[in-house]
Amino acid sequence: ANAVHTKSSGNPLFAKMFMVLLAEEKKLNYSLEEHRWQWDMDVVRNTTISEGVAVFMMAKLSRLPKVTFEALQVMACFGVKVDEDVLGLLSETEEFAALFTSLERAIQEGIIEKRNGNVFIFAHDTIQQSVYDFLPEDQMAELHFRIGLQLVKGLSTC
Questions:
Q1: Nearest residue to 89 (alpha-carbon basis) of 97, 101, 81
Q2: Whose C-alpha in 9, 71, 76, 87 is 20 to 30 A from the C-alpha of 107?
Q3: With 90 as the cut, is the pLDDT of residue 34 above it?
Q4: Measured at the alpha carbon of residue 24, what is the angle toward residues 22 and 26, in degrees to the nearest 5?
Q5: What is the largest CA-CA distance in the chain?
Q6: Taking Cα atoms as reference points, which of 112, 124, 126, 118 lies closest to residue 75?
Q7: pLDDT-derived band at 54, boundaries 50, 70, 90
Q8: Nearest alpha carbon to residue 28 among 9, 47, 11
Q9: Residue spans of alpha helices (H) in 40-136
Q10: Residue 59 in contact with residue 52, Cβ under 8 Å?
């Protein structure tokens, strides 16, 4: 616990991500025979991780399928959280039809959560900002325009 706390600087999200990294790299394993987690403390202490949550998350995000990352970029345009009904208006269009399916992978990875049955929320605002900052400003402006256009079309049919 002390090693994880030190590596994460006490940040709960960073601690969780560090534990996931250890498991993915097979440095933290669950023994079915002994019914407990096993690790080598020296290996844990020597595991290098990026100095910021944003950089660490970008490494995790870069392993996602392209369609999932693109869905996260759409979601990031709305901020840290967005109502399912708003995304629903987008998903009725051809361009954004796979939005909900694509976000399921992000939920499984712990990048976003679905709360109260109808709100999608990034697990941390740093993740949202990392996703949002990934695209150059002109491409992000174009994405905002396409989203706005689809929302106006969707609202006009209501």
A1: 97
A2: 9
A3: yes
A4: 70
A5: 61
A6: 112
A7: low
A8: 47
A9: 41-46, 53-62, 66-76, 84-91, 99-108, 125-134
A10: no
As given in the structure block, the two tokens for residue 20 are: 């996931």
Q: Could you tell me how many residues make up the chain?
A: 158
CB burial string 50-89: b at 16+ within 10 A, e below: eeebbebbbebbeebeeebbbbbbbbbbbebebeeebbeb
Question: From the CA atom positions of the chain, what is the Rg in Å?
Answer: 18
The dihedral through the CA atoms of 122, 123, 127, 131 has a sign that is negative
Q: Which pTM does this prediction carry?
A: 0.67
Q: In angstroms, rounded to a whole number, what is the distance separating the alpha carbons of residues 65 and 41?
A: 33
Tens of pLDDT, residue by residue over 101-123, are 889 999 988 889 999 988 999 98
Residue 28: count other Cβ atoms within 10 Å of its Cβ.
20
